[in-house]
Amino acid sequence: MVANIETSPQALDRKRCATFGHGRRRCFMFRPHQRVYLTAFLLDAAVMVVFATTPFFVFNQIGGNEAMAGVVGAVQMGAYALSCLGSAGFVSQTKHGLRWALLGVGLFIFFSSLMPLYPNFIFCVVVSFLSFAALGLVWPALHSWIGAEPDAAHRARHMAYFNIAAGCGFALSPLLGGPLYDSDFRLPFVALLFLGTLIAALIGSLPHEKESPETVEEESAEQEAGSTAKLLVAWCAVFVANVLIGATRSIYPKRVMGLLDTGELRFLAEQAAPSFLGDAPATTFSWLVSTLWLATALCFFIMGRKHHWHHKMALLLWLQVLAGLAMWILGYTQSLGMMILCFALIGVNFGVSFFVAMSYSLADPMQKHRRAATTEGTLGAGAFAGSIAFGYLAGSFGVTAPFLYAPVFVGLGIALQLLLLRRRQPT
Predict the structure, then answer these.
(1) Whose CA, among 99, 217, 274, 401, lies 20 to 30 Å from 4?
(2) Whole-model pTM?
C-alpha cells in the first residue's frame, strides 16, 4: 500500500498527460523526469569540462606544478563539500528547492568562465572556490527532486536513469573538452557558457517538488531500516572512492604529460609508440577520464535494474581492494591500455559506492534532502582529501608516489568500515 502517491512531480505530470490527452510518445519526451535526466547529463558535462581542463591550465598557462594542481582540485571539492553540508539545512526547508539549483547553476557557470581571463594561481583558486560552492546548491536539490517519488520501484528506476545520465555526461564531456583545450585553452570555457544556458532553461522548466509523503510502502519498511543502519558505512566507501578519483583527476595528467614528453608511453608493450599517441596530453588524458565515467554509468545501469546488491557490504569492500590495486599499478605502468583498465576499475568502485549510498539516503523521504546533501558532501570531502594530500606527496616525492602509497590509505578505509559493520551487528 502506498500513501500520497500523487504528491511527487513525476506522478502529477503523469496525471496531467492523461488530462490533456497527449500522445504516448509526446508525453514521454516532455515529462519532467526526462528533462531532469537531460539536466544531469549537461550539468556533469559542464563540470567535467572544468575538471578535465583545469590541471592543464595550471601546468601550461600558470606554470604550476603537481602540488599547485592538487591545491586547485582540493579547493574545488572542499568548497563543494562545505556548500552541500552547509546548505542542507536551509535548502531542505525551502518550499521550492529548485530555485536554489537555478541560482547555483548560474553562479557556477559565471565564475568558472572567468578563469581564462587572468592566468594567475590566486585568481584560479578564488574562482574555483566560488564556482564549486555554487555547485553545492545544485546536486542535492536535484537528487531530492528525484527522491520525491514515493513509489520505491519508480524511485529506484528514476534514480538509476538520473545517475546514468550524469555518468554519461562525465564520460563524454572530456572527449570534447580535451581536444578543445589542445586547440585553444579558452574554448572549453566558451563551451561552458553554452551548456549553462541549456541547463538553466531545463531546471526552470521543472515543476517544483511537493512535500514528501509521511508514509512509504509498508513492505519496504524493514529494508529502509537496514538502509539507515548501513548508510554510514556507504558514506565511508564514497569517501575512499573519491579520494582515489581526486588523485587521478588532479595529479595523473602530469604523469601522462611526462610519458608523452619522453616518448615512453605505449598502448600495450610495443617497441615504438603508436602514431595515434601524439603530442596532445589533454586529449590522451580525456580517454582515461571517459573510461572511468563510462564504467560508472554502466554500474548505475546494472544496479538500477538489479536488487541483489542491497545490504551486501562485501561488494563495497572487495571493489575498494581492486581500486587500491589499480592505483598501485598506475604508479608503475607506461601502457595506455593498462591505464584504461585501471581507470575503469576506479570508476566501478565509485559507481557502486555512490549508488548504494544515494539509494540508502533517499530511502527515508523525510530526510532525503539532508542525506543526499551529506552524500554529495562526502563525495566532495573525499576528492578534497585526495587532491590536497596526494598532491603534496606528488610535489614532494614525485608524481608516482601517491599511486604507490594509495593501497595503504584504502586499507585504512576498509578497516574503518569493517569496524563500523562489526559494531552495528546485532548482539
Answers:
(1) 99
(2) 0.76
